[in-house]
Design a protein that fits this description.
heterotrimer, A mainly alpha, B alpha/beta, C mainly alpha, B: alpha/beta, Rossmann fold, 2 domains, six-stranded mixed beta sheet, four-stranded antiparallel beta sheet, 11 helices, globular, C: mainly alpha, 18 helices
Chain lengths: 288, 256, 382
Amino acid sequence: MTLFTQQLFNGVALGGVYCLAAIGLTLVFGVLRIPNLAHGSLYMLGAYVTYFFLTTVGVPYVAAIGIAALILFVLGVLLERLVFHPLRNSPHTHHMIAAIGAMFFFQAVAQAIWGADFRRMETPISGSLKILGAEISAQRIVIIVTAVVVLSLLTWFIKRSIHGQTIEAIEQDRTGAALVGINPAMVSMLTLGLSALLVTIAAGLVSPINLLSPTMGDSLNLKVFAIIILGGLGSLPGAIVGSFALAITETMTSTYISSAVGEAVAFIVLVAVLAIKPTGLFAKAVQR
Amino acid sequence: MLLEIRGLGKRFGGLDAVKNVDLDVQEGQITAVIGPNGAGKSTLFNLIHGFYRPTAGTVSFNGRDITQSSPHSSVNGGIARTFQTTHLFDDSTLLENVLAGRIVRSKSNVFDAIFHTPRHRRESALNHDKALEALEFCGVAEFRHDLASNVPQEVQKRTAVAMALATEPELMLLDEPAGGIPEEETTDFGNLIRSLPSRGVSVLLVEHKMSMIMDLADTILVLDHGQKLAIGSPAEIQSNPDVIRAYLGSTKDEEN
Amino acid sequence: MSALKNPRIIGTLAVLLIIALTPVAFGDENYIMRVITVGLCSAIAVYGMNIILGFTGQLSLAQGGFFGIGAYTVGLLTTDFDWSFWQAFLVGVVGTSAIGYLSGLIALRTKDEYFAIFTMAIGFIIYLTISRWEAVTHAHSGVNNVKFPEAGDIVDFSNPTVMFYLVFIILLICVYITYAIRRSSVGRTLLTIRTSEDLADAIGVNVGLSKQLAFAASAFFGGIGGGLYASVVGFIGPDAATVDKTFEFLMFILVGGMGTVAGPLVGTMIVTFLFELFQDFQAYRFIVLGPIIIALVIFAPRGIVGYLGGFIDKRARNRRIGSAHKDGTAQSHSTAEANGTATPDDSVRADNTADSDGSTRPGTAERRETAADTITTEDEEK
């Protein structure tokens, strides 16, 4: 039972990380209609930039994440401008291929600067709490709390602020939004920037638990795609539910079956879902 | 009876796009569906052809129930269709477009292609002939080597009909076949449609150009808000008070 | 014989001839022969990608996985189970195709990004199985001493040149199959799906089944490429099945030209050469190659062969228009006639038009417009 509680908390913490990563990806899909295959590499860069400011420059942990998030925001905007914007009228396969090119580029850059070896990021947050007999590390609690705070802020941003509302408007109806004077190009940049910012927060939070490597984004990439397909591409609530559902399933299978199965569970679930419903579980009903 | 529709309905969300429609299409005839915009004409076509699954009712073709069949099996069974906005493969030639319509009648597979079997050669020649014949029938054979995107609208519309003809249908669903064609050319286009039954192709069409419909159709179904308002010969429809009322109320729509 | 007048076919034959003659130049250099032969193995897998991505317009990210299955089947069966190469190769190819066919049962229902992500998941599951199922695959220790093909005393496949010719002959078959598919109604079916699934559906194409078969065919080629690769290099590790492998293939086909007959081979050879050039920089090569991929897809999505093909078409069209003006007849009339007389059969024509769009068979109306734009601008250039 203690093990179960322990793993449940771990699962929820992991779910928070997935959530921050998945929401950006699903927003990008909703607004730009692009599955950004470079998302995982933005996560990886976010982790390394945080690491750089924390370890090499020596700023405090929270500030390091904040600076990294801002830098990645700019990078996201650039990615939209330089890569996706020129391709907006191309067949969908072209975006995906370009995103793959960007991914390779980011990985190579990270490897050139920080090397291919694993690196460990130290965190100032240490110690642990005892909850229901389970030992929960403070880092995981920070992850859960941050995820909840960031998600609430994001929801507020999308529902209340002008920029957020335009994102939502475009996600629902691109032509209509253009008609009422919303600039889709601006919103596209903002959305990609925002997705990079969110995924950096996720990376900064989880890095002290995991190790850093240039390919750390690969498996996250696939998992987050599994999540947003489960939740329906473009759906925010779907991404949130999918993140926690997948993370908990993954932690539990790793604990009670085997770690290899735990790692594969996301894809097995994904394949199963697509077999049953080719457009994802929560996708809007397709006219057929 | 070639096509029998009974109690056909489709709900989107809580809205009835098509409700309780009955229609018979006789062999060798031209049947038209008219009605104001949003009356459910295109939805009806999509239901017959299998793009949408009906939520009520049945469709049968040549006595066979095709209510649940997919578009490609409808085509295989002998129902071809054209779209309201002309759908062609823009960066292919007209001949290539019409050859694409032959796919459904091609029996040779990838191994025939690889080993260049007699069947493959025979079929290639046949497909080529049939495609050319369809283009000629529709009067656009001279444009066969032009890209679909480079020919005038009217030629595109005729090619769409040729492409549908190439699938060797018994029934052709034409969704506003003359839409976007200049008024002076509609008579010619009407003649093309009129000549289809003589080839053994019955026609079910949706059209806004009322003069054309009255001239062409043997039977007219009037839809309003997804339901049958009236059905009958052009003369009957023209004198039907319900139809007149519905149309007077929506003259503006008609002009679009 | 009319085929020999087609510049496309002449070009393809010339490329094949050059490759066929490489042993004459490098026969003694084992390393170079090895690199070229490995390149040919990849090219075979890239031909598989061409069928699903180039013809059918669906991005499959499972190709590296299929390559890996082919390689590991041959690798494991010839070492741990001591089968002959040919038996193992047969099982590998059939097995890979079967897995492609079965996963195609799901893939056929998905499209566009769902198809891509689904195939990425398939690829990753294959990779995970290979890299984690230690009891069977030896995980990261890989498989050593994969057998060369047996041939009694006739030829010696341990000789790099002999091995080269084996792979080359199989590659030739793949090129021919691609060419045959391209000219047939099978190819027309796939290209129809690439342009518009709805329109394909409306003219009676069984879109789902076609996609499934195309996917199985791509797996078939992947299995052949992988099986040969295992024997050529003699040692395989899990990196033979990674998503990176898929991306490598993607780059090959992008450079060469999606949906063309010669593109996969040309692209693979050129990029393999570039990889060798950047050998010293190893992982950093993507600092240069990543932006190149992006630039290609933005500025030159049709690939080398696609553009050469477009150039040939443009010249052919101009010549026709030129002769039309001489006759003083309307352009479209004589275009048809000139062509009708030049090629009584449609085979060459069919090839031309199918190629003329290179890679961009766009789906939506909006996209089709842009494609039409490119065509007109090309005409204006001249």
